[in-house]
Amino acid sequence: MNSRLDIIRTDFPILTQSVHGKSLAYFDNAATTQKPFPVIEAISRFYTEANSNVHRGVHKMSQQATQAYEGARNKIAVFLNASSPAEIIFTRGTTESINLVAFSFGEAFVKEGDEILISTLEHHSNIVPWQQLCLRKGASLKIIPISDRGELDMKAFQQLLNSRTRIVSVNHISNALGTINPIKDIIQQAHEKGIPVMIDGAQGLSHGPVDVQELGCDFYTFSSHKMYGPMGIGGLYGKREWLEKMPPYQCGGEMISKVTFEKTTFNELPYKFEAGTPNVADAIGLGAAVDYLGTIGWDFIRKQEADLLAYGTEKLGAVKGVQIIGTAAQKASIISFIMKDIHFFDAGTIIDGYGVAVRTGNHCTQPLMDRLGIIGTIRASFAFYNTREEIDRLVEAVLKVNDLFN
Amino acid sequence: MTINETIEEIINEFSSFDDWMDKYNYLIDMGKSLPVIDDKFRIDSNLITGCQSRVWLHSEYKDGIIIFTADSDAVITKGIVNLLIRVFTGHTPDEIISAETEFLDAIGLKDHLSPTRSNGLLSMIKQIKLYALAYKAQEKAL
């Protein structure tokens, strides 16, 4: 371990926990990342010193809470390089953000006979809301196929884009396989035909910088808890021109400008899409996570994660019977694998006994598993605070699994 | 042997294990030795859905007692299924309905096996009891 990593690990109190009497090796970062002290403290500080409802309060503490909440929005806008904080909508997370767009964009722009284009790599959260929209509207869902390595078939993508395509929605990084998709190309090609693109960024924001203006995407969704922030909050970036034209998703509270029993006029962006009292504490926590990522720096994060990915791929790949699923040229620090003739549940149970946290199953990507002809995988997903020594422990556990079941 | 006697026996067996790995070795052995369910019963209608591994549970009611057979695609799950079958098979619906299932706590299985989504353990027990209730109702109707 190098000394900077040692120091960084002390930022995450949970990493000193033991599990089944062994020190924790946490490799379930694609499900949720751990939280550093500055995030935990920001939430605690809000409830200890500043809890108050935001907006429209005349009292001092309400104004401070509003400033902190809007400050968090600003931080995210800068983090994503949005052209304005008004383009950042707070939601409960990626799933809610996708549902918001599928409903609201769908209501305004999707009609019978239209097509929605997604990919085989999608998480259920980026399938089902569109499927439901298609059912409501009589539209149809089209799927970009993948190669056996888990890469999008870009030729097929080009052919699937047509005058009926209303929107393209694909993930930035596959949660199940780690594939980093060529989203810039996807956006460019769709835009050439005047088709907007939404990027499911649930796995995107923890591994490297995202510049929504440079990408040109129309929507980008994200979850705080997968980027070292608290659970229960996340967001949607949307281009103002689209958000202005979309009807509200939920109604009540902050999103309203004027109400009579005959008619309601809606508040301006971003409040039009934020009904009810927002999750202020966690928005502030997310802001703290963004600040924290800034202090670590993408250089360190990318270098460390690339090292862990290469080391883990080499070590796991060398174990007899292990097959890595998802071997795209561009990959984030996620390794999915299967073991010959061993059920992932059996493997996961033994690995857990070693104090190593991995995820097993279909990773909410059943159509992808069907395409690959498997029922699930064992997934180790690394964060910058993980170490090579922890990977060695995973490999030791995997060797034991081979012993026990073969 | 009564249900309680079988449970006592299982608790005794498990109390001799020093660490978790012994426990799993035992479950794995039992998982490997469980007779495989007749293929004609390895069907969707016999499937108990847990998120992680699949379990097929089949029951037959004959001469006032219920005979359970089962299978799973995961070995550890199959070992647990084997334990449950050992406890419940060959008993009357009433005996099964009134049986306590806290023994799973006593043998420390709940420590490692999340009951909600991972292995459908609780769904399995629920299904065993539902079969017993159904056969009892059927008996009364006759």
What about the largest sheet of chain A?
A: 7 strands, mixed
Largest interface chains and counts: A-B, 16 and 17 residues
Order of helices and strands of chain B: HHEEEHHHHH
Return the CATH architecture of the largest domain in chain A: 3-Layer(aba) Sandwich
CATH architecture of chain B: Alpha-Beta Complex
Can you give the helix content of chain A as a percent range? 40-55%
* Separation of the first and last Cα atoms of chain A: 34 Å
CATH topology assignment of chain B: Sufe protein. Chain: A
Judged by helices, strands and strand pairing, the structural class of chain B is alpha+beta
Radius of gyration of chain B, rounded?
Answer: 15 Å
Low-confidence stretches of chain B: none
Number of strands of chain A: 17
Please report the number of helical segments of chain B: 7
Write a structural description.
The complex is a heterodimer of chains A (about 400) and B (about 140). Chain A is α/β, with parallel strands linked by helices. Chain A has 2 domains: about 5-30 and about 295-405, Aspartate Aminotransferase, domain 1, CATH 3.90.1150; about 40-295, 3-Layer(aba) Sandwich (Aspartate Aminotransferase, domain 2). Chain A has helices at about 5-10, 35-50, 60-80, 95-110, 130-135, 155-160, 185-190, 210-215, 240-245, 280-295, 300-315, 345-355, 365-370, 390-405; strands at about 20, 20-25, 25, 90, 115-120, 140-145, 165-170, 195-200, 220-225, 235-240, 255-260, 265, 320-325, 335-340, 355, 360, 375-380. Chain A is globular and about 70 Å long. Chain B has a single domain (about 5-140), classed as Sufe protein. Chain: A, CATH 3.90.1010.10. Helices cover about 55% and strands about 15% of the residues of chain B. Chain B starts with a helix and ends with a helix. Chain B has 7 helices and 3 strands. Chain B is α+β, with helices and mostly antiparallel strands and about 140 residues long.
